[in-house]
Structure formats: C-alpha cells, structure tokens
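Sequence, please.
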C-alpha cells in the first residue's frame, strides 16, 4: 500500500469521524428548545396601600416568582447545603426566626437579629437594619456569600445552578436565556427579589378589617388605637405612629429609639446607620421595623434584646436611655417617659394585637415548594 493512498483514506475517515462527532454531540447547554412565554404576576395589594415599586429590568412574572421561591427554600445556595434563606426567614415566624441573633452555617452566630421579610417590597429607604443594601436584587447576594450565613461564593452558586437541569430550565422560562452559561449572579438576585416582593402581609388584620367597617374594635382596642395614633385629646399620646405609621406600621426611617445606654455616640456597640454613612450622628440609628405580625416574633430590636411586647412597652414607657451631653444625644425627641398607667398599658397592648394577620400562610405561592419531599 502506498503512503499517499493511506493518507487519503485517513483524511476521509477523519472528516467522517468529525462529522459524526458534530452530529452526535449537540451543545448540551443550549436552552433555546424550551419555550419562553412568561406570564405577568399581579400581586394582591390591599386597598389604600402604597404602590409596589418594581425595577424596570425585573418585572414580576409567574415564572420568575416561582423560580425565586424555589431558590429561597433550597439549601443548594449554602456551602454544605444545610442552610436556605428560609432556615432564618421562616414563613410561620413571619419570615423571621426565634433566635435573638441569627444562626447560620455550622451554628455561627451573627451580630443582629434576623429581620422579618413582611412587606419587604415596600421598603424604599435601604435594606438591612442599617440600610446598606439599595435593592432586593443586590441584597439577596449578601447572605449567600456571608461566612456566617451561607458561606458560598457566588461563582460556586452559579456553577451549581448551571449544572442543575431543573434550575436551568426555570431560568430559561423566567428570563429567556439561551444557554446555561447565561445563568449568573445578577439573574439569581432578580429571581430572589421577585419572590420576596410577593410577601405582602396585613390586609386581613383586625385593624384593616375594622378600618374597612367589616368588624368593630373593642373599647380597649379603640382606646389603645387613639393612644397609638394620638387621635383623641383625652387619651395619652403614646407617640408610636410617628415612627410606626399606617398602613405598613413603619416610616422606614433610620432613628435611635434610645434602647442602648451610651454616654458618647462612638460608644454604640453596633453603629448601625453610622457605619454606612460614616457620620457620628448616625451612630445607634436603625431602621424602624414594621409592627405587622409582631405576635409571630420571639425577640425584638436589632439585637433581639427584648423577648415580649410587654418588655418593649416598658422601654417606651420609661423613656429609654438619653446621654447627658446634648452633643452626644441623637435619641429621637419622641422618646421620653410616657408614664402610662396599667389600664393605658393594657389598652395599648389590646390595640397592638389587632395588627396580626396570618392569612398569608394560606397563600400557596408563599409555601415551601419542597415540603413533604
Ligand atoms: C443565617 C440567617 C440568615 C440567612 C440564611 C438569610 N438571612 Fe436574610 N437576614 C438575616 C439577618 C441577620 C438580617 C439582618 C442583617 C443586618 O441588618 O445586618 C437579614 C436581612 C435580610 C433582608 C433585609 C430585610 C429588610 O427589611 O431590610 C432581606 C431582604 C433578606 N435578609 C433576605 C434573605 C435572602 C434572600 C436569603 C437567602 C439568599 C437570606 N436572607 C438568608 C439572616 C439571614
Ligand atoms: C422615634 C421613633 C419611634 C417611636 C416614637 C416608637 N418607635 Fe418603636 N422602633 C423605632 C426604632 C428605630 C426601632 C428599631 C430599633 C432597633 O432595633 O435598634 C423600633 C422598634 C420597635 C419594635 C421592635 C420590632 C422588631 O421587630 O424588632 C417594636 C415592637 C416597637 N418599636 C413598638 C413601638 C411602640 C408600641 C411604640 C409606641 C409606644 C413605638 N415603637 C414608638 C422607632 C420608634
């Protein structure tokens, strides 16, 4: 056999082999064969509530919300696959938990209490107790990378999702990507944000229903309501509504309500907003939390220091701690001894109990998609 002839045969063979290889090995990451036809998600917002703002580049869709829901409840986003967002943000606890301070991967204890995610889509002043994250899209990536929460690098998180058949299909259906390589941290944050915007809670509380005339407040609740809102010259003004105003029962401002006893601003053990702005006058300021569904919480304040609403009211009733030097004092002027008597205290408690609404637990879109797995 001559070499020339062998060469020709080899060439023909190799063309044949390569051709076969191309045919038998389609691009495995291709997603274009899956349909992309997202359906808008219209959240149920109680009448008279503010608009739910959504970024123009991340409108809510059924597919996006459902993808975000799975990601929220899935431990795949933690290093050892033991912790999901819902480990700390438990639906039955109003999307918070029962620890004074957050407990993350390997039992690591954080510096602050897990925030309730009730109505988090309406927060427009910065997320976290100190406001350091601007959007839900951006915020969602923090706990994944936080060494004391989920401790997973974003590149590893993205790789896991790219190699997961069900998730890659869902990312295609939610965001129209053409290839698994297009799954990235940006889309991960968007999906988690879409899900969290549907955590809308409070429209069926006794408070809202009484305001709509569907049922009546008791005499104690009415008295407490007038104290809370300063609605009646004859009842004591408890000042609450200036910071916890309706319908969300928070102004979302950053304030110091005088829980921490310090003589100098820089002595605050947790600087709160001060760490974000670098301003001394912001030390010890934290975002006013919503009071909706406080009954589902076991701890109160950014450091979980109080274990009951009675403790909280004792604090406001005593006027908290105010530094003696006015230059070091940023405790809000609305914080001063209220001197409530026992009847006033009980009436305020009765009103506060009208702020509970657990009907959100029946919303199938807020339930653990892996339950009963
Ligand atoms: C280990 C417990 C833990 C885990 C896990 C966790 N969080 Fe949180 N979450 C917290 C704590 C603690 C804060 C408050 C932290 C701070 O202010 O510094 C918080 C705050 C938030 C906030 C801000 C709420 C507001 O009103 O400003 C959002 C949103 C949130 N978490 C979403 C998530 C998402 C999404 C995940 C999963 C990707 C997640 N969290 C995982 C403990 C946790
Ligand atoms: C000057 C504004 C202001 C006033 C007035 C005020 N609060 Fe607050 N409230 C805050 C701030 C700020 C926080 C968060 C403080 C922190 O965590 O460090 C808070 C936290 C709370 C919490 C804890 C919620 C949680 O989930 O941790 C409760 C409960 C509460 N306030 C109830 C009340 C009641 C009831 C009144 C009226 C008696 C009242 N507040 C008056 C600003 C105020």
């Amino acid at each position: 056999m001559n070499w020339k002839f062998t060469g020709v045969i080899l060439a023909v063979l190799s063309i044949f082999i390569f051709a076969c290889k191309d045919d038998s090995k389609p691009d495995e990451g291709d997603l274009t064969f899956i349909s992309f036809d997202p359906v808008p998600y219209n959240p149920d917002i109680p009448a008279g509530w503010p608009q739910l703002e959504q970024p123009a580049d991340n409108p809510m869709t059924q597919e996006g919300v459902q993808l975000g829901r799975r990601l929220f409840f899935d431990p795949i986003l933690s290093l050892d696959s033991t912790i999901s967002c819902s480990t700390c943000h438990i639906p039955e606890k109003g999307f918070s938990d029962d620890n004074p301070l957050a407990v993350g991967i390997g039992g690591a204890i954080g510096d602050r209490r897990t925030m309730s995610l009730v109505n988090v889509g309406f927060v427009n002043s910065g997320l976290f107790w100190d406001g350091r994250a601007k959007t839900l899209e951006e915020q969602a990536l923090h706990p994944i990378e936080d060494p004391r929460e989920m401790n997973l690098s974003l590149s590893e998180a993205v790789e896991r999702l790219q190699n997961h058949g069900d998730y890659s299909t869902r990312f295609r259906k939610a965001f129209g990507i053409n290839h698994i390589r297009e799954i990235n941290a940006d889309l991960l944050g968007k999906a988690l944000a879409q899900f969290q915007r549907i955590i809308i809670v409070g429209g069926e509380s006794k408070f809202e229903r009484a305001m709509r005339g569907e049922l009546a407040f008791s005499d104690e609740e009415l008295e407490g309501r007038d104290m809370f809102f300063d609605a009646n010259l004859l009842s004591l003004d408890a000042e609450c509504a200036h910071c916890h105003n309706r319908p969300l029962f928070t102004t979302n401002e950053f304030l110091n309500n005088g829980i921490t006893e310090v003589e100098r601003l820089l002595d605050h053990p947790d600087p709160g907003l001060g760490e974000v702005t670098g301003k001394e006058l912001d030390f010890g300021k934290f975002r006013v939390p919503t009071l909706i569904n406080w009954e589902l919480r076991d701890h109160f304040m950014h450091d979980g220091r109080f274990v009951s609403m009675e403790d909280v009211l004792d604090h406001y009733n005593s006027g908290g701690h105010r530094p003696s030097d006015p230059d070091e004092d940023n405790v809000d002027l609305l914080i001063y001894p209220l001197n409530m008597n026992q009847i006033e205290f009980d009436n305020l408690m009765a009103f506060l109990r009208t702020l509970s609404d657990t009907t959100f637990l029946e919303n199938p879109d807020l339930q653990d998609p892996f339950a009963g797995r």
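The two ends are 66 Å apart (CA to CA).
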